[in-house]
């Protein structure tokens, strides 16, 4: 069915919080009032403690935003692993440590329900598909799992070629100064172009990926989507705003424009491939709908994280040399191995097959990328340090009990304490610090999702695109260290803010690249 794929090689405050707190009850303290109103939506289990509010605060948002780590440390010390907070216009139960796994492994808790409640995302996704309106459709997950991930080694050469070609083309637009440095004020623009091209080649094949409208659609779909969902306010949208937006999305989805662009570009190709006009018209539209959903899940997340790799290379300059050395060592070894294979064939009088072409000896092959264990550790450590401290909300579809006996009642929301997962003592020493080689020599690949590594979720809904994403991140890192001997922040005062910023943080500094001689 998914022919196009299978044939192709932070945040503003919502003022609603204030609005829903009844005006005029000024005899009651704001803190007490806050908790009384919010309690209505907490899980009905009264044994779950509610985190206290600071004097003068009506929600936990201020305390959380000021210092996420300190807030969570205080709550965990006072209340243990499971406690209630009022954050982002929601009453939520924070689940930490050993109980995190129970949330991901229990079908009673659903992350899509929670995301939909906050953003109305489901109405968007359903509006893009003509035929399949199943709420829990596993179709898109299956498309990535069955059509992309198993064939990743086959796509690698074309992904590397696209990333390399776009990096050179985009960097050539900037002036090189006499000392060999290049200032790029918005590195995300370079990376977006690279990732969109690489993703388009995988998702729709080289023919359609050449279409500029399609590429622009890949880059802007996530921006359109974010803006429609309320821009930077997504996380803190009020109940009424979400309700009205959801109603609007059902009748009018701006993402239809992206479906149409893809449909127009893809139809001739689909027709040629299917030789059935009827099939192209019905299935083709749905394929494009699925594609836009995939684009939303993949391009911005991967571009943003890839850009952050460049920022991390600037923040930890010694890593560039080690990563470059590793790359040379890996390529030297592969070159030697291939030479030995050629000699063995020659000595037996056998022909040298095309895939042992000496010109490909130093290519960034899937094998070479897999062997770059320092790059893999660097990427995993960046994810470990960078995630929002509370994230991955789940909504409870029925009353569900955790192993400590606490009941998360139907309709209530859980939020995962990522700090407790990513900074637990099991992560090794200096858990609060970026230690790039933390995972070298351990069986902890960057693609390995689990209760100790949650940027891609875990369990049956864990991101199926993480294998493609990590491969692209490692290739972009490898290309950066092979082309540039130094990457510096244009504004070093922003370093900590940038590397700690979560996905979607605006660009706070340019980068200065020093080309290798
Ligand atoms: C750095 C890049 C990426 C990050 C950080 C990321 C993160 C995530 C997260 C946190 C989830 C939710 C998991 C859960 O609910 O437990 C998810 C789901 C998903 N992602 Fe990714 N993702 C990335 C790239 C991609 C790519 C490249 C693709 C496609 C090729 C993709 C496709 C999907 C799909 C289809 C789902 C829905 C899975 C389901 O509900 O069963 N993602 N991703």
UniProtKB/TrEMBL annotation:
The keyword Aminoacyl-tRNA synthetase does not apply. Coiled coil: none annotated. The chain crosses the membrane at residues 12-33. One of its GO terms (molecular function) is heme binding. Keywords: Heme, Iron, Membrane, Metal-binding, Monooxygenase, Oxidoreductase, Transmembrane, Transmembrane helix. Heme binds at residue 463. Its cofactor is heme. Pfam families: p450. The keyword Hydrolase does not apply. Residues 336-361 are annotated as: Disordered. Belongs to the cytochrome P450 family. This is Cytochrome P450.
